[in-house]
Design a protein that fits this description.
Order of helices and strands: EHEHEHEHEHEEHEHE
Structural class: alpha/beta
Number of helices: 7
Distance between the termini: 25 Å
Number of strands: 9
Strand order of the largest sheet: 3-2-1-4-5-6-9
Radius of gyration: 18 Å
Bound molecules: 2-hydroxyethylsulfonic acid
Shape: globular
Helix content: 25-40%
């Protein structure tokens, strides 16, 4: 594992992955996102701790042309990506189907499904010609079971679940591994804030139980990526100890001293 590319690296699980993979001693890290200032800050924080090559790609994953242009702009030696972490994704809104906002639907479908497809198409072509590589998708418990008002977000994550299985079948004879992690509630992310349009009060959904942290999920992703070459972990479904399903959560209090980062 020499070169790792992470989408949605400016916050949450993507950012936590950047720290975990940088610490593991990889040579090149490509961090992608829309917010240049956040990516610059992440790069400088990573370089204070570790010595590796870090390349920033700032673009909108919802545009195929922008994805293509960003990847084409990579220096030649970074174009052979060994591990693609398809992390960029979000939930927008929590509404009954008849009250959902079209704009929220477009944002989720374009980011969570089409963005993942664009990056996978562009990067897997090189993996196929090299007959090696690893694609790791970030799914969700919402990709395993639907919940009230989750409609379009859940559908987008069911699509990720289907694509992980389908891409695995397509690339099985090419020496390429395809995996996913499907986490439940995760704190230290912008997930709730995005879902509720920046409404801080509504976003306080983790105050009465311990969810996973972004680092917990990043550790699972690193575990998947660091197995011996003959091992493909297809799927990890993970939740905090106090969460048993999308709707069954022990909200009796924060029972664990989980690390906050
Ligand atoms: C995040 C899990 O239950 O908030 O993907 O949709 S949930």
């Amino acid at each position: 594992m020499k070169t790792v590319l992470i989408t949605g690296a400016s916050s949450g699980i993507g950012k936590a992955c950047a720290f975990v993979f940088a610490e593991s001693g990889i040579q090149n890290l490509i961090i992608c996102g829309r917010r240049m200032d956040r990516l610059e800050e992440l790069k400088s924080n990573l370089l204070k701790l570790h010595s590796l090559e870090i390349q920033i790609l700032s673009f909108d994953i919802r545009s195929f042309d922008e994805c293509k242009h960003a990847l084409n702009s990579l220096p030649e030696e970074l174009k052979s990506i060994d591990v693609l972490i398809n992390n960029a994704g979000l939930a927008k809104g929590l509404d009954f189907i008849h009250e959902g906002k079209l704009e929220d639907w477009e944002t989720m479908l374009d980011t969570n499904i089409k963005g993942l497809l664009y990056m996978t198409k562009l990067i897997s072509a090189g993996m196929v010609s090299r007959q090696s590589g690893h694609i790791i998708n970030i799914c969700s418990t919402a990709g395993k079971e639907v919940y009230p008002k989750g409609n379009v977000y859940c559908a987008s994550k069911f699509a990720v679940d289907a694509l992980t299985k389908a891409i695995r079948q397509d690339l099985v004879s090419c020496g390429i591994r395809v995996s996913q992690v499907a986490p439940g509630h995760v704190e230290n992310t912008e997930f709730a804030l995005n879902r509720f349009d920046g409404d801080v009060e509504r976003s306080k959904i983790y105050s009465d139980f311990n969810p996973l942290t972004a680092k917990d999920v990043a550790d699972a992703i690193y575990f998947i990526a660091s197995r011996p070459a003959h091992v493909n972990i297809q799927d990890i479904l993970m939740m905090g100890t106090q969460q048993a399903s999308s709707t069954v959560i022990d909200r009796s209090g924060r029972n664990y001293d989980a690390p906050t980062s």
